[in-house]
Specification:
The complex is a heterodimer. Chain A is α+β, with helices and mostly antiparallel strands. Helix content of chain A is 35%, strand content 24%. Chain B has helices at 19-24, 29-59, 83-119, 127-146, 176-205, 218-249, 263-297, 304-317, 333-361, 370-393, 395-401, 405-435, 441-467, 487-517; strands at residues 437-438, 519-520. Chain B has a two-stranded antiparallel ribbon with strand order 1-2. Chain B has one domain (21-534): Cytochrome c oxidase-like, subunit I domain (Cytochrome C Oxidase, Chain A).
Chain lengths: 238, 581
C-alpha cells in the first residue's frame, strides 16, 4: 500500500524531501517532549488530598529560555530553506541552456507548446499537445506558463513541484526530470466544476525515445493544434 | 473574611422591561451574548451537516448518499452529489464555519457575555450598537443561507472566493449565489465592526476601580486584542468584497486582467484580512483556555505578563504574514522569502504560550472538570496544529504540501482542535453563569471523550493524505492513479467524521435537558476569582448592585494564608507572611 510521498523523479524533489524530514524530526521531537511533559504533569499534579497547589507566578529565566531556543531553531530553519527556494523559483538563476516549453491552462485542460526540432519556442515548427508533457530525462526545461481564464495550479507530485498559473501573468518554472516514466499532473487550485478532472501526464523519455516521438509528431501536430482551437504561443505562428 | 465571593447582593430593583426589550431587541450584553450563542450553534450544525456531504462523496465517490434521494435532481441526481454541489458544499462549509459559527461563538458570545462582567461594568459602552451588531447577523445569515437555494446555486469558488473564478459567472454558472455571498459578508463585516468598537471602548473606559490593565483576565486581554485586529482587518475584506461585487454586477474589472485588473490583488486583499482572521479565531480561544487552566490547576497563570506580550506580538506579526498563503501564487519569490521569515517568527510567541500553560500545570492541583478537559485538549491539539504549520512556513516544503489535505488537516487542528475545544470549554465553564443551571458533568465528560477521539481519527489521517499528494477541493480522488491506494484512508475518515458529528448530539442533549430541568447552579461553582462569579446566576440587568473594587490580579489561587484556595478579585489578598516576596 502506498501511503506516503510518491517516488521522487525530479532534480529538486530529493532536496525538498530532505528538508521535509529535517522539519519532521525537529517537530516530531518537540511534539513528543511537549505532549509527554503535559501528560506527566496531568498525572503527577492531579488533585490529591493532602497536597495543595503551589502559588508560583512565573520565572523570568524560564521565559527567556523558552523564547530563545525556539527562536534560534526556527530562524535556522528559515535560513536553511531560503537557498533551495531561490534555486527552484527565482527565474534569474535558471540554467541558460534550458529548453523552453509553453503552457497555457484553461478550464480543465493543459495546453503545452513544444519548440519543435530546432529547440526554440515561438517559430514555425512549434507544435501543441493537450494534457501531455513530453520531456527528456536529465535535461533542463523552463515552462513559460499562463492561464487563459481563471487561476490554475500545476502540481506534479512526483516532481514535488507546484506553481500557480495566473491570467495576465507570465510565470516561469524550472523542471529537470531525473527518472524516465509516466507521472501524473493535477490542478491544485480550485478552478471550477471540472477542477477534479483537470488531469494530465508527464512522459519522461530517454533522448532516443524522445527523438522518435518527435518524428512521429511531424504530421500529427498541425491537426492536433487545429483540433484544440489554439494557435501556438509566440510570434511566428502559422 | 467569609467564604470567598459567595456573598450575593440582594436583588433590589425590579426589572420591568417588556418581554420584547428584555429577550428579543435587548441591549443587555448578556442577552446578546446568549442570542449569539444559539445563532452560532445553529450555524455550527449547518456547517457540520455540509461537511457530512463532503465526507460522503470523498469516502464513497459516485455512490448515492443516504437520504440523498430527498434532494432535488439538480443538486444530487439519483442521490449522488454532483460536482457542482460538491464544491458548493466545500465553499459553504468553510464560509458558515468561519464567519457564522467559530467567529461569532468566540467573539459574539464570549466578548459580549464576559467583558462587562469581568471588568466590573454594568453593560457595554454602546448597548444599542451592540444590539445592532447582533441583529445585523440575522440578515447576513439569512442572505448566506438563501444563497444555497437560489437559481444557479451557491458560490462555488471556495471560502476564499478567488477571482476570476468568483467574479465571472461564465466560469461557474453561478450568478446570484455569489452576489448574495458578497452582500452577506459586507453586512457581516458591519456587524463585526460595531461589536469590535464596543469591546475596545468598553475595555478602555469601563473598567472598575482597581482593574488596571495588568489585572485584566487573559480572556479579556485576548478579546480586546482580537477586537483591534478585527477593526483593522475586516474593512479590508469589506472593501475587497465590494469590488468583487462590482465586478459581477456593474462590469468593473478590478480583478480581471483583460482590462488591466489583477487576480493577485484579490488574493493580497483577501489574505491581508484572512491571516489576521486566523488570529481572530485563535486568540480568544487562548484567552478562554488561560482562564480555565488557571482555575483547573488552582494556580496563577505562569508568566502572566509574558502571556500578554505574546498575544500582542502575535497580533502585530499577524498583519505581516499574509503572503504565506501565496508562496506558490506567482508572487515574486523574494517577497515570499520575507514572508517565510515573518511566519517563522510568529511561531515563537505561540510556543511561549504553550510553555506557560505547561508552567501553570506544573505543581498545580489539577481538577479534571469538563471545561478543564476541553481546555487541556485545546493545548494538546494546538501543539499539533502549531507544529504542522512549520512545514508550510518553509517555502520549499510548502511547494509540495500547499493545496493538499495536509493544509486541511492543519486548519482543522487549529480551528477545531484549537478554537472549537476552547469554545466547548468556555460553554461548559460559563453555562452556569449564563443560565443559572449546571450542565451535567457526566454527560459533559462523555461528550468530551467521544469528540476528542473521533476528532483525532477524522483529522489526523488527513496529514497522510496530504503527504501522499491528495489535493483539497477535488470531487473524486479516484480519478488519479497515484491517489487510488489511499482510498481506504478516505473511507476511514468519512466513518470517523460521521461518528464525530453524532457525538455532538450528547452535548445538544445535555444543553436541552439542563435548560429544561437541570440542577440549579451555585453562584461560583468552579471556585473562580473572576468578578462574574460574585453576582447571581444569571446576573441581573446592570450586573453589579454597586460598582465593585478590584484589589489584585485575576488568578489568585492557592494563596498562602488565604481561607480558601481562591481569593476573588474584589477581596484583598491576605497579609504577606514573613519571608515571602
Amino acid at each position: 500500500m502506498h501511503w506516503w510521498f510518491p517516488g521522487n523523479a525530479s532534480s529538486v524533489g530529493g532536496k525538498v524531501d530532505s528538508l521535509f524530514y529535517v522539519i519532521l524530526y525537529i517537530t516530531g521531537a518537540v511534539f513528543v517532549l511537549v505532549e509527554a511533559t503535559l501528560l506527566v504533569f496531568l498525572v503527577r499534579y492531579r488533585r490529591k488530598s493532602g497536597r495543595t497547589a503551589e502559588h508560583v507566578e512565573g520565572s523570568t529565566r524560564a521565559e527567556i529560555i523558552w523564547t530563545a531556543i525556539p527562536a534560534v531553531i526556527l530562524v535556522t530553519l528559515a535560513l536553511v530553506s531560503q537557498p533551495l527556494w531561490s534555486k527552484i523559483k527565482d527565474s534569474d538563476t535558471y540554467p541558460r541552456n534550458a529548453v523552453h516549453v509553453g503552457l497555457e491552462a484553461k478550464q480543465f485542460e493543459w495546453h503545452f507548446t513544444y519548440p519543435g526540432p530546432d529547440g526554440k519556442l515561438g517559430d514555425d515548427d512549434d507544435f501543441m499537445k493537450k494534457d501531455t508533457l513530453h520531456l527528456v530525462v536529465d535535461r533542463d526545461y523552463v515552462l513559460e506558463m499562463t492561464a487563459r481564464d481563471v487561476v490554475h495550479s500545476l502540481f506534479i507530485p512526483a516532481f514535488r513541484l507546484k506553481q500557480d498559473l495566473v491570467p495576465g501573468m507570465d510565470i516561469r518554472m524550472w523542471i529537470k526530470p531525473t527518472r524516465t516514466g509516466t507521472f501524473e499532473m493535477a490542478c491544485s487550485e480550485l478552478c471550477g466544476l471540472g477542477h477534479y478532472r483537470m488531469r494530465g501526464v508527464v512522459v519522461v523519455h530517454t533522448p532516443q525515445d524522445y527523438a522518435a516521438w518527435l518524428v512521429s509528431q511531424g504530421a500529427a501536430s498541425a491537426a492536433d493544434s487545429a483540433a484544440a482551437g489554439l494557435t501556438p504561443s509566440g510570434k511566428g505562428a502559422p | 473574611m467569609t467564604a470567598a465571593g459567595t456573598a450575593v447582593p440582594a436583588h433590589t430593583h425590579v426589572d420591568d422591561r417588556p418581554f420584547i426589550r428584555k429577550y428579543v431587541f435587548s441591549t443587555d450584553h448578556k442577552i446578546i451574548g446568549i442570542q449569539f450563542l444559539f445563532l452560532s450553534l445553529f450555524f455550527l450544525l449547518v456547517g457540520g451537516l455540509l461537511a457530512m456531504g463532503i465526507r460522503w462523496q470523498l469516502g464513497f465517490p459516485g455512490q448515492a448518499m443516504p437520504l440523498g434521494g430527498w434532494l432535488p435532481e439538480g443538486v444530487a441526481p439519483g442521490g449522488v452529489v454532483s460536482p457542482k454541489t460538491y464544491i458548493g458544499l466545500v465553499t459553504m462549509h468553510g464560509t458558515f464555519m468561519i464567519f457564522f459559527a467559530v467567529m461569532p461563538l468566540l467573539v459574539g458570545v464570549f466578548a459580549n457575555y464576559l467583558i462587562p462582567l469581568k471588568i466590573g461594568a454594568p453593560d457595554m459602552a454602546f448597548p444599542r450598537l451592540n444590539m445592532w451588531s447582533f441583529w445585523l447577523m440575522i440578515p447576513s445569515g439569512l442572505l448566506m443561507t438563501a444563497s444555497l437555494f437560489v437559481l444557479g446555486g451557491s458560490s462555488v469558488a471556495g471560502w476564499t472566493v478567488y477571482a476570476p473564478l468568483s467574479n465571472t459567472p461564465d466560469y461557474t454558472g453561478v450568478h446570484l449565489g455569489q452576489q448574495l455571498w458578497c452582500l452577506s459578508i459586507v453586512i457581516f463585516g458591519l456587524s463585526s465592526l460595531l461589536g469590535s468598537v464596543n469591546y475596545i471602548t468598553t475595555v478602555i473606559n469601563l473598567r472598575a476601580p482597581g482593574m488596571t490593565w495588568f489585572r485584566l483576565p487573559l480572556s479579556v486581554w485576548a478579546l480586546f486584542i482580537t477586537a483591534v485586529l478585527a477593526i483593522l482587518a475586516v474593512p479590508v475584506l469589506a472593501g475587497a468584497v465590494i469590488m468583487l461585487f462590482f465586478d459581477q454586477t456593474i462590469g468593473t474589472h478590478f480583478y480581471l486582467p483583460a482590462s488591466g485588473g489583477q487576480p493577485l490583488m484579490w488574493q493580497h486583499l483577501f489574505w491581508f484580512f484572512g491571516h489576521p482572521e486566523v488570529y481572530i479565531l485563535i486568540l480568544p480561544a487562548m484567552g478562554i483556555v488561560s482562564d480555565i487552566i488557571a482555575n483547573g490547576a488552582r494556580k496563577p497563570i505562569f508568566g502572566y505578563v509574558s502571556m500578554v506580550w505574546a498575544m500582542i506580538g502575535i497580533a502585530f506579526l499577524g498583519f505581516i504574514v499574509w503572503g504565506h498563503h501565496m508562496f506558490q501564487s506567482g508572487m515574486n519569490p523574494t517577497l515570499a522569502s520575507a514572508f517565510m521569515v515573518s511566519t517563522i517568527v510568529i511561531a515563537v510567541p505561540s510556543a511561549i504560550k504553550v510553555f506557560n500553560w505547561l508552567g501553570t500545570l506544573w505543581r498545580g492541583s489539577i481538577h479534571f472538570t469538563t471545561p478543564m478537559l476541553n481546555a487541556l485538549a485545546f493545548v494538546s491539539m494546538f501543539i499539533i496544529g502549531g507544529l504542522s504549520g512549520i512545514f508550510m512556513a518553509s517555502t520549499p516544503v510548502d511547494m509540495y504540501i500547499h493545496g493538499t489535505y495536509f493544509i486541511v488537516a492543519h486548519i482543522h487542528y487549529v480551528l477545531f482542535g484549537g478554537s472549537l475545544f476552547a469554545i466547548y470549554a468556555g460553554i461548559y465553564f460559563w453555562f452556569p453563569k449564563m443560565f443559572g443551571k449546571q450542565l451535567d458533568e457526566r454527560l459533559g465528560k462523555v461528550h468530551f471523550a467521544l469528540t476528542f477521539v473521533f476528532y483525532n481519527l477524522t483529522f489526523f489521517p488527513m496529514h497522510i493524505l496530504g503527504l501522499g499528494g491528495e489535493m483539497r477541493r477535488i470531487y473524486d480522488p479516484t480519478v488519479y492513479d497515484y491517489l487510488k491506494p489511499m482510498q481506504p484512508i478516505n473511507v476511514f475518515i468519512t466513518v470517523s467524521a460521521f461518528l464525530l458529528f453524532a457525538s455532538q448530539i450528547v452535548m445538544a442533549w445535555n444543553i436541552v435537558r439542563t435548560l429544561a430541568r437541570g440542577k440549579k447552579a451555585d453562584v461560583n461553582p468552579w471556585h473562580d476569582c473572576g468578578l462574574e462569579w460574585t453576582v447571581p446566576s444569571p446576573p441581573p440587568h446592570g450586573n453589579f448592585e454597586t460598582t465593585p473594587t478590584v484589589y489584585h490580579g485575576p488568578y489568585e489561587f492557592s494563596v498562602p494564608g488565604a481561607p480558601a484556595d481562591y481569593v476573588p478579585v474584589n477581596q484583598p489578598l491576605p497579609a504577606v507572611p514573613e519571608g515571602r516576596r
